[in-house]
Amino acid sequence: MKAAVVDRVGGIPRYQDFRDPEVGEGEVLVTVEAVAVENVDKAIVAGTHYTSGPFQAALPAIPCFDGIGRLPDGTLVGFGGVTPPYGTLAQYAAVPATHAAPIPEGIEPPVAAALSSAISAMCMRTAGGLVEGETVLIQGATGVAGRLAVKVARLLGAGRIVATGRDDDALRELTDLGVDAVINTAVDDADLIEAYREHAGDGYDVVVDYLWGRPTELLVRALTPESFAMPKPTRLVQIGESAGASLQLSADALRTSGLEIFGASRNLATGMAAAYQQIVDWVRSGELVIDVVTMPLSRIEEAWTRTDLRGKRLVIVPD
Ligand SMILES: NC(=O)c1ccc[n+]([C@@H]2O[C@H](COP(=O)([O-])OP(=O)(O)OC[C@H]3O[C@@H](n4cnc5c(N)ncnc54)[C@H](OP(=O)(O)O)[C@@H]3O)[C@@H](O)[C@H]2O)c1
Fold first, then answer.
1. What's an example of a GO molecular-function annotation for this chain (predicted)?
2. How many domains does the chain have?
3. Which of 65, 71, 127, 148 has an alpha carbon within 20 to 30 A of 229's alpha carbon?
4. 195, exposed or middle or buried, with CB in 10 Å at 0-12, 13-18, 19+?
């Protein structure tokens, strides 16, 4: 079969022949229709993700671990569960039958491939407990996931949405999406702390944090009172680390800022099904638009290195 193949740590996938997957007991053969390429996929290839080990050990290998495809009977499914060296950037994948679930009608494969970032944005409700009228701060809102989070926050009835990014043009585009205020994080520390305070209004109720690192460290400093005070709670949902894998958190900040920190997977087991259904309903009704850019598998080298996608998810489709 044809596949995108990486031959060394940090290599760029190349379009070439690869041995067909063998379908084992309890597995099904999926003909791949669409695969979203996300930061996590690039980090696994680069060897910087905590789950990189099995991929790196199996090189040469095919990147990406989930996708949308068709079963032999024509059913469109979302699937995962490939085992390196096999991945989903290929014509075919053999996966456990238990790891293939039907995609609801009315959703095209490229959009279905990108659904997961919208579903994960629902963590502002499932993990952060967002209720209508509350103020949401989205850290890293100019990215693919952040823009979807802006749309999801609006659909969930957020009262005010404040968004951060590093590029003024991209931040202006967010205003068109319904953001009430924007903060450029590419300023010096004191100015950024001031900006977080200035735009907080009555306080941020929920923070959806795709950044961590320096911007979130400065946000925490902005939330920390400088005299004895009874701060409002701010529920920060940690979902990404585009600005850094760690930050310094002082004891007094946690004691006094009202900050409550949750992982995005909080309440996932009980909230996932409803979150999924809500996103599917919004996509089918046209209320939620997921912007994707599709490119054929044969152009994977060019696709993998694109930097001009401006908040749209790259989705690889068959030739
Ligand atoms: N757990 C989940 O379910 C889930 C789902 C989706 C995403 N994520 C994670 O969330 C993060 C964002 O994903 P994405 O797909 O939206 O990525 P993306 O499209 O690359 O967007 C990254 C965002 O972070 C900003 N950024 C990047 N580096 C930065 C830095 N050094 N300092 C400050 N801001 C920086 C970008 O600003 P510019 O626009 O200026 O580049 C953009 O707003 C990633 O860590 C990803 O793995 C997690």
1. oxidoreductase activity
2. 2
3. 127
4. buried
Of ligand 1's listed atoms, the one at least distance from the Cα of 244 is 31
For the stretch 28-71, pLDDT in tens is: 999 999 999 999 999 999 999 999 999 999 999 999 999 999 99
| Predicted pLDDT at 228 | 79
pLDDT tens-place string over residues 121-130? 999 999 999 9
Give the model's pLDDT for residue 283. 97
**Does residue 29 sit in the same domain as residue 163?**
no
Q: How far is the CA of 91 from the centre of ligand 1 (A)?
A: 29
Check pLDDT > 90 for residue 136.
Answer: yes
Distance 286 CA to ligand 1 centre (A): 25
Q: What residue's CA is closest to ligand 1, atom 6?
A: 117
pLDDT exceeds cutoff 90 at 223: yes
Q: How far is the CA of 114 from the centre of ligand 1 (A)?
A: 15
Q: Are residues 96 and 158 in the same domain?
A: no
The tokens describing 199, both together, are: 């735009």
Same domain (yes/no): 141, 255:
yes
Domain that holds residue 136: 118-267
Tokens 């659909």 correspond to what residue?
155
Chain centre distance of CA 16 = 28
43 and 152 both lie in a single domain? no
Looking at the DSSP bridge assignments, the partners of residue 79 are: 67, 100
Closest C-alpha to 242, from 268, 266, 208, 276: 208
One domain for residues 110 and 122: no
Instruction: Locate 309 and state its tokens.
Output: 């996608």
Beta-carbon contacts of 239 under 8 Å, excluding residues fewer than 6 positions away, are: 120, 123, 145, 208, 209, 210, 264
Residue at 95: amino acid letter: V
| C-beta of 130 in contact with ligand 1 (< 6 A) | no
318: its two tokens: 């068959």
User: CB of 126 closer than 6 A to ligand 1?
Assistant: no
- Tell me, yes or no, whether 110 and 138 share the same domain: no
